[in-house]
Amino acid sequence: MECKKTSNLTHCNCSYEPCSRKGVCCECISFHLRSRELPACVFPPDAESTYDRSFEHFARLVQAGKV
Question: Which residue among 21, 39, 59, 61 is least enclosed by CB atoms within 10 Å?
Answer without folding.
Answer: 59
